[in-house]
Design a protein that fits this description.
binds adenosine-5'-diphosphate, 24% strand, 6-stranded mixed β-sheet, binds magnesium ion, 4-stranded antiparallel β-sheet, Rossmann fold
Length: 263
Amino acid sequence: MADPNGPIVELKNIVKRFGSVEALTGVSMTVRKGEVLGLLGDNGAGKSTLVKTLAGVHAPTSGEIWVKGVQREAWSPLAARNAGIETVFQDRALSPQHSIVANIFMGREITNSLGLINVRKQMDEANRLMREIGFTSKVFNPNSIVGNLSGGERQGVAIARALYNEADVIVLDEPTTALSLTETQKVFRFVEAVKESGRTVIFIGHNIYHVWDISDRFFVIDRGKEAFEGPKSAFEGADHLIHMMHDLAETGRVDQTSLRKSA
Ligand SMILES: Nc1ncnc2c1ncn2[C@@H]1O[C@H](COP(=O)(O)OP(=O)(O)O)[C@@H](O)[C@H]1O
Ligand SMILES: [Mg+2]
């Protein structure tokens, strides 16, 4: 039997080659239930490749994917979804000309016994999901067109859709890259709400200050290899983490003696 208190996701020794490029050279990452894991690394480090492997988009060249204590074979985007893992990719996730409610239920509509869309039920459910993640704007309702929403609100719709699918793990790949500070705060509030509901979040960002604020633990990749895994308490603050990242970029390694031991 799978241990209910065990890790929700384990990637074991994942290697991913694209032709002659080895994007991941053997990465092992553990994700605990209910945490926000900040996934950090320079451009090209392999962050997106790692989460696309978890999302079933890329088949690993070698290595194992474990979810909820079970090793997953024949992994695919559908299998990942069915196992409770939802990945939100920036901008690509939504259909801007459609309403919020249409986007949330796209491909997974609530239907009645005649196979017709149950509009009323979808509206109720969309309202509930938007409330659950703290969608506060009075200007918008489930019928609002997504193209009229701000970037942060669009991320909120994508997260609401992930919740509708009863995701246990929500992966956000650079959700704040194109956003203003206010909009970024909005996305953080959505992530907080997801965490409070007991779900797990993997958050990728290259602004370390942003990732610092919302993460419980960090996983750092450098040139396709894991360079650091540890809790927030290993650092004095965001600047300490940034210092470590700069050191890593310069020397290719993390100086463990510079970290706090309280962890
Ligand atoms: N589909 C692909 N085909 C070939 N190379 C790829 C592909 N996807 C990513 N790569 C390469 O793998 C490396 C890691 O990329 P990526 O995972 O996107 O990094 P990150 O998300 O950390 O910026 C890069 O060298 C990138 O060029
Ligand atoms: Mg990326």
